[in-house]
Structure formats: C-alpha cells, structure tokens
C-alpha cells in the first residue's frame, strides 16, 4: 500500500506520515521548503518514506508533483491533503492578493492534488482513500479569519462533492477538522507536549496532539473505513461545543461574564 501526505515535514502531516507507515504504507512525504525536516519525517517512518517537494502556491505544479510521487511509489492508495497556511486579517484590512493566496494554497491546491490522485486511483482500478485536513473553522468563524474560514469551508464542501463523484470507483473522500493543535504552526515548539498547555475554554483543557489528529486520519485511510465517505470528523477536544457558553454565562452569571468580557475584549 502507498500513501502521499502533503505538508509532512512537521506537525499533523509528519504525525500522519508516521501513522500510515506504521499501518504498512510506503509514504510519499511532501514538503515545501524544509527538505531536512522532511527527511527527519522519513527517518521516523523507519525507511517507509520518500521525500519530494510540493508547493500548493502553484496548484498545477503541485498536482504534477503528486503524480510524479505516485509514479515513484508504484501507485497511490491514499492521499492526505494536509499542507496549508494560516492567516488572520480583519476584513476591512485584507488585501485581495492575500485573500487569493490563502484560497490558492488552502483550497485550489488541495483540489488539484486530489484530482491528480483520483485520476491515478481510477486508472489503477482498486479504489482508494482521500482525506482532506480542514479545521474547526470549516464550521466556526473566527475574528480575522475571512480568507482562512472561506478556504477551509470550501474544502469541506469540496470533500462532499468528491465523495459523491468518486464513490462509483471505490474511492472514499473524507475530511478531518482539527481544533487547536500543539504544532509549530500554532507556535508550539517540537517536543513540547500539549498536556502542559492550559486551555480552560476547551473542555479537554488543552490543545490536541498532532498524533491524536493523525490517528483519525489513519482510521479514515484504513480498509475498515470503506463505508465512510463524505463526512468531516472533528478532533477538537470539545472546542466546538463551546459556542454558546459565553452567552450562557452572560445570561446566568453576570459577574463572571463581566470578568470574561474584560479579559477577552468581547462586546456582549
């Protein structure tokens, strides 16, 4: 079995490459600029990985990179679209150039990679798995997240269309939407465990670990998940359950809410 993971030089992508290697896949480890980090991921796969450059800022070239990696691997059974970038900018200050950059990297690039992988899978005739990594912000807005939320929401809906169209070929397409995860993208150094980071507003009390998200991805990539397609599996420690809590506190505990508003700069 073979798998390609984009954005596999660190964080969730690295953890996913390791999880899939442990499940018996030979893994194509996609990276943008940090080849040394990608090679470190390859070492963690115990010889089950090859590294290759892939930049979603050029979707056509990224699709070609996926196709070449599949050729090197001798085929493709699993694609995990994990690469992406995060951004915060108020709507009134966002530039069209930056808006387009986020949509290109976080939505158009993953589409191009999925299309290339799906074409290969159809030609092989043995089905396959595509897993897109979105975010809780596929569903939940965040201040300054216009471009990021639009891209992740679009990727979630694209997942459903791909699942519908590719089902006749035995290809399942699903998404995993992580909440806050302790990775370098979120300012957490490699090696720092999420258990030591307090997040009182998350029911689990901490951010997620990359390996916890990777476990969900690996499940959706497994043969046992053959009857699961077109869904988004959220891995967020309960963060998305909290949307009404601030208002509940305001209505039922005005003194406590006044403190919350002061600390968080929220206007009730």
From TrEMBL:
CDD domains hit by this protein: SDR_c
Pfam family name, one: adh_short_C2
Signal sequence region: none
Homology family: Belongs to the short-chain dehydrogenases/reductases (SDR) family.
Protein name: SDR family oxidoreductase
């Amino acid at each position: 079995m073979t798998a390609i993971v984009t954005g596999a030089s660190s964080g969730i992508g690295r953890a996913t490459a390791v999880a899939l290697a442990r499940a018996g896949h030979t893994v194509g480890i996609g990276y943008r600029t940090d080849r040394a980090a990608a090679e470190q991921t390859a070492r963690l796969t115990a010889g089950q990985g090859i590294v290759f450059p892939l930049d979603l800022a050029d979707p056509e070239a990224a699709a070609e990179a996926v196709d070449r990696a599949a050729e090197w691997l001798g085929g493709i059974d699993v694609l995990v679209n994990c690469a992406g970038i995060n951004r915060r900018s108020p709507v009134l200050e966002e530039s069209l150039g930056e808006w387009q950059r986020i949509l290109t990297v976080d939505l158009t690039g993953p589409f191009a990679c999925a299309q290339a992988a799906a074409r290969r899978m159809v030609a092989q005739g043995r089905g396959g798995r595509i897993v897109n990594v979105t975010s809780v912000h596929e569903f939940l807005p965040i201040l300054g997240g216009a471009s990021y939320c639009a891209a992740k929401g679009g990727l979630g809906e694209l997942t459903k269309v791909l699942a519908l169209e590719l089902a006749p070929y035995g290809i399942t397409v699903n998404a995993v939407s992580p909440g806050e995860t302790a990775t370098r993208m979120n300012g957490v150094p490699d090696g720092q465990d999420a258990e030591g980071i307090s997040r009182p507003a998350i029911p689990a009390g901490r951010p997620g670990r990359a390996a916890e998200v990777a476990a969900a991805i690996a499940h959706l990539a497994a043969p046992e998940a053959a009857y699961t397609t077109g869904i988004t599996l959220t891995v967020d420690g309960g963060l998305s359950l909290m949307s009404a809590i601030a208002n509940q506190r305001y209505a039922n505990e005005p003194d406590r809410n006044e403190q919350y508003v002061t600390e968080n700069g929220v206007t009730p």
